[in-house]
């Protein structure tokens, strides 16, 4: 019995190690941002914006109309198209902007998005998901140039972040699965590149 258990455990370890090695081989081929820019003949990025493709697990960096580089990304555990509450684990769809950049986070680095927007709050108020005081709180924070508050039923703290201390394992998995609370996760190396070319106000479009 014990021998069988040991065989099963060793088999799982060998399988998992093999997947990681295969993922490392795949990632070795990934070009850096500098290499991608050189390949496109770009020396400077202008009008930077990001497009997030949930269906294909990609985050794409654009310079104007030029697609500069595509990054592997994963999203919220709930694949629904509409986000209605702080705890539904849905990555919201629509056009957003980076409202804050943070390097003090368990996910390495985070670019916080301005969700919920005023129109999200207005829709939630209309549908009875939040109260008027919540709507006004969201509206006031956004109009004063801040990120939306996180203490309403709609939540907030949706962003683009790294993986953190488990980066080596997750970035080298040869498959993708959604594990976040609603944010967009990329590898630590990817968030480093994105962090260096974006700023507060950079536009982010998320679609299925």
What are the SSEs and their pairings?
Layout (H helix, E strand, L loop, with lengths): L1 H27 L4 H8 L7 E6 L4 E6 L2 E7 L21 E12 L2 E6 L4 H9 L5 H12 L15 E3 L5 H5 L12 E2 L2 H10 L5 E5 L1
Parallel strand pairs: 1-8, 6-7
Antiparallel strand pairs: 1-2, 2-3, 4-5, 4-8, 5-6
Helix pairs in contact: 3-4
Can you describe what's shown?
- The protein is built from six helices and eight strands.
- It has 208 residues and is an alpha+beta fold.
- It has a domain at 1-30.
- It has an eight-stranded mixed sheet with strand order 3-2-1-8-4-5-6-7.
- The longest helix is centred in the N-terminal third of the chain and has 27 residues, at 2-28.
- The N and C termini lie far apart (48 Å).
Overall geometry comes to globular
Largest pleated sheet: 8 strands, mixed
User: Beta-strand percentage?
Assistant: 15-25%
Give helix % range: 25-40%
Mean pLDDT: 91
Give, in order, the helices and strands: HHEEEEEHHEHEHE
Which structural class matches the secondary elements?
A: alpha+beta
Q: How many DSSP E strands? A: 8
Biggest sheet: strand arrangement: 3-2-1-8-4-5-6-7
Tally the helices: what do you get? 6
- Report how far the terminal alpha carbons are from each other: 48 Å
Low-pLDDT ranges: none
Radius of gyration over C-alpha positions, nearest whole angstrom: 19 Å
């Amino acid at each position: 019995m014990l021998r069988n258990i040991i065989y099963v455990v060793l088999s799982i370890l060998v399988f998992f190690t093999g997947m990681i090695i295969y993922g490392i081989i795949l990632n070795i081929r990934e070009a850096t941002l500098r290499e991608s820019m050189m390949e496109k003949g770009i020396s400077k990025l202008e009008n930077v914006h990001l497009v997030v493709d949930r269906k294909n697990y990609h985050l794409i960096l654009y310079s104007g109309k030029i697609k500069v580089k595509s990054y592997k990304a994963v999203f919220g555990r709930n694949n629904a198209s509409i986000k209605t509450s702080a705890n539904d684990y849905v990555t919201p769809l629509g056009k957003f902007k980076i409202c804050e950049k943070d390097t003090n986070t368990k996910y390495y680095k985070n670019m916080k998005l301005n969700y919920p927007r005023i129109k999200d709050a207005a829709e939630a108020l209309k549908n009875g998901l939040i109260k008027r005081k919540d709507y006004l709180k969201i509206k006031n924070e956004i109009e004063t140039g801040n990120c939306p508050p996180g203490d309403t039923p709609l939540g907030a703290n949706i962003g683009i972040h790294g993986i953190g201390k488990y980066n080596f394992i997750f970035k080298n998995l040869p498959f993708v699965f959604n594990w976040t609370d609603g944010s967009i996760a990329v590898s630590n190396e990817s968030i480093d590149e994105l962090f260096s070319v974006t700023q507060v106000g950079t536009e982010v479009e998320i679609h299925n």
